[in-house]
Amino acid sequence: MTPDQSETQPQAAAEVPERPTLDGLEERWSEVWEREGCYRFDRSAPRERVFSIDTPPPTVSGSLHVGHVFSYTHTDAVARYQRMRGKAVFYPMGWDDNGLPTERRVQNHFGVRCDPSVPYDPDFTPPAEPSEREPVPISRPNFVELCLRLTETDERAFEELWRGLGLSVDWSMTYTTIGARAQGISQRSFLGLLARGQAYQLEAPTLWDVDFQTAVAQAELEDRERPGAMSRVRFHVAGADAQEALIETTRPELIPACVALLAHPDDERQRELVGKEVLTPLFGTRVPVLTHALVDPQKGTGLVMVCTFGDLTDVVWWRELGLPVRSVLGPDGRLADVPWGAAGWESEDVGRARRDYAELRGKTVNQARKRILELLEQAGDIVGEPTLLTRAVKFFEKGERPVEIITSRQWFFRTVAHREALLERGRELAWHPPYMRARYEDWVNGLTGDWCVSRQRFFGVPFPLWYPLDAAGAVLYDEPIAAREDQLPVDPSTDVPEGYAAEQRGRPNGFAGDPDVMDTWATSSLTPQIAGGHTAGTAGSGEDDELFAKVFPMDVRPQAHDIIRTWLFSTILRSHLDYGVLPWRNAAISGWVLDPDRKKMSKSKGNVVTPMHLLEEYGADAVRYWAANGRPGTDTAFDAQQMKVGRRLAVKLLNASKFALADLPPEGQSLSNPLDRAMVARLGGVVADATSSFEEFDYARALERVEGFFWWYCDYYLELVKGRRYDTAGSGGGDGAASDGAGEATASVSRALRRSLSIFQRLLAPFLPFVCEEVWSWWQEGSVHLASWPGGAELDAAFGGAQAADGDLENTALAVTADVLSEVRKAKSQARRPMRARVTRAVVHDSAERLAALELGAEDLRGAGSIGTIEKVVSQEFAVDVELEEETAD
RNA sequence: GGGCGCGUAGCUCAGUUGGCCAGAGCACCUCGUUUACACCGAGGGGGUCGCCCGUUCGAGUCGGGCCGCGCCCACCA
Q1: Stated in angstroms, how far is A837 CA from B33 C1'?
Q2: Is the Cβ atom of A247 within 7 Å of strand B at any atom?
Q3: Nucleotide nearest to A832 (CA to C1')
Q4: If you average pLDDT over residues A508-517, what whole number do you get?
Q5: What angle do CA A423, A427, A431 make, to 5 degrees?
């Protein structure tokens, strides 16, 4: 039933509880919403009536914190607004269970580790007493089973929390990023990119985490400040021992991996050296001295050592100057065995090179660094004392040791070639707030290489590929065998490619499955497709192209600003590559929750606030109120005080609704009283403001406006009209024609109260869904969340067609009446008298215009202020002289 | 080093195109149980709008320059 219907037809008396309460509303109403399917997506709606949301699937790695509650509440408020606007809201939830965080938890929780060489054991049960120190090696399929078992438990807990918070999600459409559908879609998209040359594999230097022993992507790096030491190291010019070349380095352990020294082309000081060859200290390897424009002559000695590979700049120099590879670091982050001598690495003194390198081999980077400095010192090739400094070092965001750069075969998606197109997509997207676009552009402009998507891990989406083995059993990487689309999803470690038998796995002339899984973002970047059921061509996962066409491109992607470079960027990329469109029209970027000291909440800091107890202590509506106060894109400090305020607002709505609905509804809709009409006119302005704010995804502004006016309404309007409202409640209809005026005045306020409360209940419903549903249920059929958003027609109806020609006068009447009431209250308060104290005479000084308007509200004002007579004096300055009745001594 | 954002009452923040004595909530103080509400109501004190120039009849609002904080990015040897 629409609100218009409800108010034009006779209503039954409202069923208002004697003592309204917030207790138990969450349980009661979330159960009703589920039972009634209140938030089910209406698939029959035409495309233009659909509003689709690409919700962030939270990482299922244990606990939720208030940051989740914060940003998901923002999205939910928008979803509820759109639903009330008549949209069929597509709002499914996903769980991001794919990836490293889950692997780590499974290892610790069950005391196992994944070893792909172990065969699958269908009867495997995890150890009764998990040991972190001696984990049981298990097969990849067994490991994945445990991952799934653990994530299922987590996902149930998450869903319970979301329901408690009142998210209006369609729970029948939940997806996971490790589920068969997601895997099928992810693999299918990969094969498409492969076929179109947008995915390729390459043996190349890639960013590498030595703890997890996997490749990582540029997007997953972060800088951390670490102490270091800068050492000045002497190289000798080959054949001219007396001539030396000095470099400065923080990574002397990479001297054996040195392939050149570089100077800036214009650096006069180095002119002598350029073009010559020098010998590396200790190892005696000949390396050339070359020039490159990226060398900064101001830094260090102006001469820099290029190693394979110390940092990303080394990779640039190595590639652009065509230098050889001499790599010393193994995948485990230790210095590997290297072949000094004849057929291997060149040295002027092989014996010494072998002897010195033996001191380093097998050591970690840190150990080797310490040792090589000692060796260099002994050799006299350190100049002066090392300088201690602090420098930014790149880390894998989930890692504990700096990333290294190691040459390996990896899969890549092309990004750099699409830079301009991606920037254009960024301009096409509507950002809320708009300045967030800069972060995206910074990132796209700063891309240094294509996206490395392969990971040497286990719990993820495998590449749908096998490779043939030649007669000697060597893998033919350049002839990958792709899975057929109708096979997807496949696991090449257990599934067999077409044309081969299972026994041929790993045999000469047989095949091998691709051992890697995809970067978790390679699947998460497809959430619009996964959520939208885009599974065409994928066997057994429920094709649903009709649904996809209805929801994609989506209307909005809500997410936090820290994952613009990962999730937002990669989703745009994939949609651009696969469909040539933006994945959504709007990006609504939320901030973070900071602790009260304005530090980011994080597990490592131990300042995380968990949300469950907040919901219990303050109630879901109150927690949502706090969250909805956080402006779009702005980091917000955690503040339990705000939750108390939210709770007060909810209680206020209960009580104001009780007051408004206490009497029987009168016939008709039109408002005859000027104050009633002015109030509704003001409310109309608030509705317009809230509506335009919501259209811009500015839920916080909408709440601020609605809330502000609601408190004014309670403090002034309700107080002003109280007397008139009670007038006939007692006097009844016995006076016949004589009481028609009074009867009509009362009917007007009664109608105004119902009209305004109906609107307030709907305006607040996106923020306080539980209490609004409660008060709505007292007098309306159906859910407030399916009622229509307040707007023009119903407001016009309040004026009964006779839109006041003197609307300005009425508005002024309401303003001046409230001003006088405020002055009267102040006088009583300063006289330390109760508010009910009688005012024998109030003299209002004001402009002639306002005094004239005051007349329209004088009756209500006298009632609200217990005022005997009101006198008016024309004046430039507004003032009220209040004469209080003598205090009766008793 | 580049970019973005922020700096308004003790605290958290509003202040949309420049316009009367700068606002709210919390906290603090005073008063008050009047039939929506003690999970309450009424009132009060409290601010050189970070600093300095400039544009203007008029600047919290626009321009320039500083200072401070936060974040993002960077080819950090």
Answers
A1: 14
A2: yes
A3: B31
A4: 95
A5: 120
For residues A529 and A12, give the distance between their C-alpha atoms in angstroms, rounded to a whole number. Answer: 48
Whether residue A15 contacts residue A62, with contact meaning beta carbons closer than 8 Å, is answered with no
Residues ≥6 apart with Cβ < 8 Å to A537: A188, A485, A486, A488, A543
C-alpha A298/C-alpha A443 separation (Å) is 28
User: Would you say the C-beta of A223 is within 7 Å of strand B?
Assistant: yes
As to burial, measured by CB atoms within 10 angstroms (0-12 exposed, 13-18 middle, 19+ buried), residue A758 is buried
What is the rounded distance in angstroms from the CA atom of residue A815 to the CA atom of residue A857? 10
CA distance A587 to A425: 12
Query: Is A711 within 7 A of strand B by CB distance?
Result: yes
Backbone angles phi, psi at A63, to 5 degrees: -100, 150
8-state DSSP, A12: P
Q: What are the DSSP calls for A655-687, one per residue? A: HHHHHHTSSPPPS-----SHHHHHHHHHHHHHH
CA-to-CA distance for A77 and A325, rounded, in angstroms?
A: 56
Eight-class DSSP state of A340: B
Provide ipTM, 2 decimals: 0.94
Euclidean distance between CA atoms A581 and A191, whole angstroms: 19
d(CA A199, CA A417): 12
Per residue in A748-801, pLDDT (tens digit) is 999 999 999 999 999 999 999 999 999 999 999 999 999 999 987 787 766 654
H-helix or E-strand spanning residue A846? strand A839-846
pLDDT for residue A538: 42
Q: What is the pTM of this model?
A: 0.91
